DNA sequence: CATGAATGAGTCTTCATTCAT
DNA sequence: TATGAATGAAGACTCATTCAT
């Protein structure tokens, strides 16, 4: 969608459709006029090469657009961080690339975060609360242990499928034993706690064997789910992850052995 | 490392070093005679993959010569690399630290390896063959699919327990989606192939359900084993990993459900 | 370097820097207004080749703003590079020494140039245009071929005498057959084209012999001029180079033979 | 030309034609026998990948081959140095590459030369004597100054054409103002002395103008010759350089001006 | 003498972080 | 607050030179 208008005697090309509204709602102008013609330059740093041309009338209208506030910038950096971590890996990601992705200056990152690792830590800290709240809600709405297990696994897969970048980063960094270990292990631990709870419910119900070694069962389930998610991540999300939940829970409950073999 | 001997009336200097014992246990000679004296060229570069066989007569003589020189350094750097990778993570590890750990100068690393990644790649390339040979042997010695699965898992855990540093690095790098992915994914793929093979055996035996979605089962098993190993790694190897194999395989076969619940 | 002004009722911050004066003498603005305040983005990277023209009204205002910031640093590094190249030779010059000479940090060099060779390449790319423009102007102002040849040689010597460091680097690198060859050979080729043109003019005038082998004549002249310049360079510029032009052109025209000998 | 023979019960392949006789006359053996078969490896360090296989009978014969003596090694390194300098440029050449080219060990170079520059310096020191002796002889055999000039230029071109590697290195390094300057300038100075001598002869003969500025004439001639040689070097020696001598000397004597213009 | 593995100083290059504007 | 140019510490890699054999 382009539109021609006049500005100070110059013909100005106005291009609106390419503006990245989702990320950036303030106006950005690049006037390129030499009295004869005008043209557009892409801003290749931090603005996703999107460019708008305005005339004065439009300037007035833009005046009512809310400015970028702290909160917005904080969130934008957080998301940009995960995007870049997913793209390059945490170690290879640079502050510059995150800043460019977020549309802020390099230095601005340091107004909101201590350093690169802090972006990752705070992202997961925030998402963890949110996701575990969903887990809790899903489990609480079920009656049987089997159903609870199904809802947990299902919900896990749903959350990762919704935010593939997060899934990539999480799966890739989960095994990083050094930096970030506490943060991420903490998440796994909480996940395992939920499983333990469900196991105990199941044992009370009589649908789960009582002699099981709980610590192992927790890892058995987490490991299997994790691997299935990881495979999906590596496959670049080309199939539906959640549909794996039902057969996976079936494996958890019945194992691979045939009844006759028991 | 050098020894003078007589061969067909020529004085021959014999020098043995520079070769990987693991790959090559035979002697390598280069005689350079010009009628007055003779000397040896050591094959120091570019011969890593070359294998030369000598006449048994010579082998006997060679048998008493120790082979530690370059061989030793190559292995020391390899081990130092894994030690440092386990300590710092592959990315944070520096060539300087590996050199210090190996007790050599920085530049020496580059006489044996292309770069940091090459150390990792060659380590796994070497170990992979060895470990899968053990897997194969373990499986081939078993009669039932259940026993095969048990031996595979057991053998996996044994191998990792024997070399905890390798386990740390492997678990940490397994999920790295970017660099090294091919190397490590290849290993996982081969592992899954073994599982698939066992599953099919079990289905033929009638002890494993026939309607299973194999691709999922493979990941179900690998993921669970992997997570159990990973937990052991994070626990700094304080308990016996192999004793987890039996209950784990039990979970694979019977699941967590009680018979009455089916 | 910043200035507040009013433009159509908006407060506009104007920042001018970052651009090569030699390439671009117009003003560049990026207005970012969101209704509350407005600010400027400096176009710091990737815009070297982009040229934007402003309305003359703005140009007048801009005229009073000094442009030394990045411009200055770019030029300082360029000059420091040539100084160090002249002092040590291109190969022996180090980035550190150039940075020290320019009074910037090592890393700063990489904000302006790709690497060491890029400094040399961009220096000559810039000077080539300028110098050949002078050559062209000098030649066009002359009537006879002899006069043209004189002016070309004269102008060449003048340019080198003005910037001895450039002369040193150029003479030293001209013969480097490997790196930079294209850049520098290209310059020589253009020089020879000018000579060929003059020769042809002279032939038309009847003052230059018609049976000459032009390819040889071009090298005959270029080589002689080049050697005379080179001698002057090695003599550390202790005499007037340009005064060599007249007798040199005389040699070109008449040779060393006496008329009686012909 | 391969020949099969038997050695200690092994079949041995003997290959004689690929031996680099010119550089290396001692025998080099690589036995590759495992009791079943034998094969050839190329020695890729320092021996141009040439390999011979001998049997004991042949060993006896080799015993009469003269050993490599100091002189031979010195000359081989000298030549290898020029070859590598011509290929890579003096700065980019490494001691390792020169050693490989010469078929000696890196350390051996330091038994004969102080360092890399010393190889270059000693090469030119040696060739200078030889070449100037030829120049002298050529000049002394001529009667007229014109003929002398022609023989000098001709001889120069002949010498360079005979040893193109030397020509490449000389032309490339001539203009290096820093290292080597004294060495190379010294050569040019001696060359110019010869020219001056010829000029003076010519003036006595009356075929060369008496009012000439000798210092300029010397550079005029040297520069032109040098440039013509350089062009030939860059053209990779695809045409006959010496045939340029006659028309070049004609330009020196008569210039480019037509008689009518005088 | 000859060797070439080993050394480590020296260089280029990247990038997290700072700070003047 | 926001900026991004500037910084310089840190790391990878090269290669001339040494020295034990």
UniProtKB/TrEMBL annotation, chains A, B, C, D:
Pfam families per UniProt: TetR_C_4, TetR_N
Source organism superkingdom: Bacteria
GO molecular function: DNA-binding transcription factor activity; transcription cis-regulatory region binding
PROSITE patterns, per database record: HTH_TETR_1, HTH_TETR_2
Keywords: DNA-binding
DNA-binding region: 94-113
Xref: InterPro entries: DNA-bd_HTH_TetR-type_CS (IPR023772), Homeodomain-like_sf (IPR009057), HTH-type_TetR-like_transc_reg (IPR050109), HTH_TetR (IPR001647), Tet_transcr_reg_TetR-rel_C_sf (IPR036271), Tscrpt_reg_YsiA_C (IPR013570)
Annotated ranges, domain HTH tetR-type: 71-131
PANTHER family per the UniProt record, alphabetical: FATTY ACID METABOLISM REGULATOR PROTEIN, HTH-TYPE TRANSCRIPTIONAL REGULATOR RUTR
This protein's name: TetR family transcriptional regulator
The species this protein was found in: Desulfobotulus alkaliphilus
Lineage: Bacteria, Pseudomonadati, Thermodesulfobacteriota, Desulfobacteria, Desulfobacterales
């Amino acid at each position: 969608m382009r539109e021609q208008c006049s500005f100070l005697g110059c013909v100005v090309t106005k291009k609106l459709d390419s503006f990245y509204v989702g990320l950036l709602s303030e106006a950005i102008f690049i006037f390129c006029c030499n009295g004869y013609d005008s043209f557009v330059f892409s801003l290749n740093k931090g603005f996703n090469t999107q460019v708008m041309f305005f005339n004065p009338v439009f300037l007035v209208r833009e005046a009512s657009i809310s400015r970028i506030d702290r909160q917005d910038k904080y969130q934008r950096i957080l998301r940009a961080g995960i995007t870049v971590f997913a793209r390059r890996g945490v170690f290879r990601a640079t502050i510059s690339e995150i800043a460019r992705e977020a549309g802020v200056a390099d230095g601005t990152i340091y107004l909101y975060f201590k350093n690169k690792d802090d972006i990752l830590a705070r992202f997961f800290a925030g998402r963890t609360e949110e996701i575990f709240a969903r887990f809790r809600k899903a489990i609480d709405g079920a009656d049987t242990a089997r159903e609870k297990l199904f809802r947990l696994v299902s919900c896990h897969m749903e959350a990762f499928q919704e935010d593939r970048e997060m899934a990539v980063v999480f799966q890739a960094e989960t095994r990083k034993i050094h930096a970030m270990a506490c943060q991420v292990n903490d998440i796994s631990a909480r996940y395992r706690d939920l499983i333990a709870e469900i196991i105990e419910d199941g044992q009370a119900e009589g649908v789960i064997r009582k002699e099981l070694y709980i610590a192992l069962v927790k890892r058995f389930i987490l490991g299997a789910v994790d691997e299935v998610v990881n495979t999906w991540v590596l496959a670049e999300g080309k199939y539906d992850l959640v549909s794996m939940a039902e057969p996976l829970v079936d494996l958890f409950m019945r194992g691979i052995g045939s009844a006759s073999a028991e």
